[in-house]
Amino acid sequence: xxxxxxxxxxxxxxxxxxxxxxxxxxxxxxxxxxxxxxxxxxxxxxxxxxxxxxxxxxxxxxxxxxxxxxxxxxxxxxxxxxxxxxxxxxxxxxxxxxxxxxxxxxxxxxxxxxxxxxxxxxxxxxxxxxxxxxxxxxxxxxxxxxxxxxxxxxxxxxxxxxxxxxxxxxxxxxxxxxxxxxxxxxxxxxxxxxxxxxxxxxxxx
Length: 205
What we know:
This protein is α+β, with helices and mostly antiparallel strands and 205 residues long. It has a single domain (22-203), classed as Lipid/polyisoprenoid-binding, YceI-like (Lipocalin, Beta Barrel), CATH 2.40.128. It is 15% helix and 48% strand. It is built from three helices and eleven strands; from the N terminus they run αββββββαβββαββ. The protein has helices at residues 2-20, 84-91, 151-154, and strands spanning 23-26, 35-40, 47-51, 54-60, 69-75, 79-81, 103-117, 120-131, 134-147, 161-173, 191-203. The protein has an eleven-stranded antiparallel beta sheet, covered by helices on one side. The protein starts with a helix and ends with a strand.
């Protein structure tokens, strides 16, 4: 009887440990669908665009979402708007200067106000946002949706694994990051609204 009890306890411990282990999600999307949207709703020229060069890794534990860590990276030269000339200006030295500052990053420091319902966690993400070589700490309301065994549904039947979808929306002031502060505000809004809806995958061996 003692041996049986010990075996059961060992089994529970191993199972619990496996479930509690954090998963590493890769946000470099092989399908090329991931993108961050940005909007500058100015008086004369409302501007909208996307940034498709998304990558980064996030560690997420379904049993402890508050312990989430990681970073999301965007290739600055992947930011585009519908007008090609405006895109060139956006990439140039007076605006984003992508040649000197090739990456835009958000590094997660912590999650607060964490609340989980079923497979979705709502929280406030505190992190370091870096744009055009300037880093500032910001807070972003986010939703993390954990989809167990859903990778094959998004890709192919033999590709086993889990998905993590991150959604969020926040606004930054371009002057805070040295992007033409105080200039052309009738055509380029001083505030930039960013909308994030991206998915990362954690394949299973």
